[in-house]
Amino acid sequence: MNSSFETNPLIERLPKHLKQFIKPQDYDEYTPINQAVWRYVMRKNVDYLGKVAHSSYLDGLRQTGISIESIPNMYGMNRILKEIGWAAVAVDGFIPPNAFMEFQAYNVLVIASDIRQLEHIEYTPAPDIIHEGAGHAPIIANPEYAEYLRRFGEIGCKAISSARDYEMYEAIRLLSILKEAEGTPQNEIEAAEKRVDELQNDMGELSEMAQIRNLHWWTVEYGLIGTVDNPKIYGAGLLSSIGESAWCMTDNVKKIPYDISAVNQSFDITKPQPQLYVTPDFAHLNLILEEFANKMALRTGGLSGVRKLIQSKALGTIELSTGVQISGVFTNVIENEGKPVYIQTTGKTALSYREKELVGHGTEYHSEGFGSPIGKLKGINLAIEDMSPRDLRAYAIFEGETVTLEFEGDIKVSGEIITGSRNLQGKIITISFKNCTVTHNDTILFQPEWGIYDMAVGKEVLSAYSGPADVRSFDLITHVPSSKTIKAQKTPERLKLEALYQTVREIREGKTGENLETIFTALQKEHPKDWLLSVEIAELAHKNNNHDLETKVLAHLEQLKSSRPEVAHLISNGLELIFENESVN
């Protein structure tokens, strides 16, 4: 798989646990109909968005080298994105939110390389290359916005999830796949919708991850910029939806000044949004992000941070005041007067300092969990970490001494000190004991038969966040999605239609002298319901002043508008691009 990463050094620097989500783009899988869908959406978007999108959008299209005529190739995108300090990788649909945001923290844009079906040309609930490549990529050419995106990823990937969040991710992923796939039985879609509704109505208190995903949705995906009375589009979901980009500009969609309250405004990914938030400028986005980050366990730590990690039932990290970091699945905390006085992990655990695993404290050594007191010794104002060598000697905290340390909250550690380790500032961060017993009142937390007792030193929990401190400490190559994207069926009828689309494309590019009238006759006879190729033929007939063919095609399209009213506006939109200021009914 490494051969697919060669085009940008940023991708080489990604950790292995992120590389597991990357897949080859396989450009040859895009069909002529896929290319026509891209071209239609991009032509319509550039024409319309030039009026309503933030000025960075059209500038970004030019800077990122995204073509209106053809689906972008990841290699080409990476060569150009490199110039603005970013990269792009292909993935299979939705990936877990923490991973998605961590990619952003590395300045890497995640692109779902599949493309929506013709039937979903206006909007798809599934992420696709139109949404990612034409929505996200151009706007990151704006340096201020790009920094917001990177910073968002850096903070967002540390957000603590609830046990329900991952269920919701899998449910939404499945629903988006089923809705985008052709021929999915309605009962399967309804069952998936029901599951999403059930989870949305039973999420309980929103986790940090749920809240920051809300912020991401109302800014990165569906954000407006400017004033409530005169907003411009910058959110990728709107930039890539020819239906919703127009809808959102009407009075049917409520416009709200963007503030921190957006963290509690949930969304339905399968429906147009009834309200949108307007930021005055990109700098305001960072202000709100920092306001939210200040409330995260990442910055507040404490008892509530430890509890969030326990409730998540997932790998997380706490950082103590000495800088020592404990990474594992937290399962218990003993509290006293609103503070944690003892923490416990279960299973593989690692200790780190400044995101680097401490020698001898990896998951093989701490394979069955880790527990440690936190706080000050009872009756002593001076914390262990603040003691000078003379203080340590006075309290018998010294190698070879048998000592009983009584912590606030009735945690007692009794044993013979073997050794300790210090941080760069000289503060003790770990102490190891033999023949050690640890108790909380009458409850035994550790006993001598279990071996060496390693105690982390710290008077308080400064930070708690999702994931490990040192990503190399754990095997994170574990992601197996419960659902995979469904490819369009290649029926004989479909293959014939694809061949017609390809021929028209080659005619437009001057690669063949095939007769357009012959193609149009075959299209009418064998594929009478298809509308997009007729629009492309009308475009070429108009360009070549073939008035007879143009008249026939326009008559056929009028019939289609009557027989297929659901696509009438799409046909009209396509013809408006051809005839520009000429009147089209």
Automatic annotation (TrEMBL):
<protein>
    <submittedName>
        <fullName>Aromatic amino acid hydroxylase</fullName>
        <ecNumber>1.14.16.-</ecNumber>
    </submittedName>
</protein>
<keyword id="KW-0479">Metal-binding</keyword>
<dbReference type="InterPro" id="IPR036329">
    <property type="entry name" value="Aro-AA_hydroxylase_C_sf"/>
</dbReference>
<dbReference type="InterPro" id="IPR001273">
    <property type="entry name" value="ArAA_hydroxylase"/>
</dbReference>
<keyword id="KW-0503">Monooxygenase</keyword>
<feature type="domain" description="Biopterin-dependent aromatic amino acid hydroxylase family profile">
    <location>
        <begin position="1"/>
        <end position="263"/>
    </location>
</feature>
<dbReference type="Pfam" id="PF00351">
    <property type="entry name" value="Biopterin_H"/>
</dbReference>
<keyword id="KW-0408">Iron</keyword>
<dbReference type="InterPro" id="IPR036951">
    <property type="entry name" value="ArAA_hydroxylase_sf"/>
</dbReference>
<keyword id="KW-0560">Oxidoreductase</keyword>
<comment type="similarity">
    <text>Belongs to the biopterin-dependent aromatic amino acid hydroxylase family.</text>
</comment>
<dbReference type="InterPro" id="IPR019774">
    <property type="entry name" value="Aromatic-AA_hydroxylase_C"/>
</dbReference>
<dbReference type="GO" id="GO:0016491">
    <property type="term" value="F:oxidoreductase activity"/>
</dbReference>
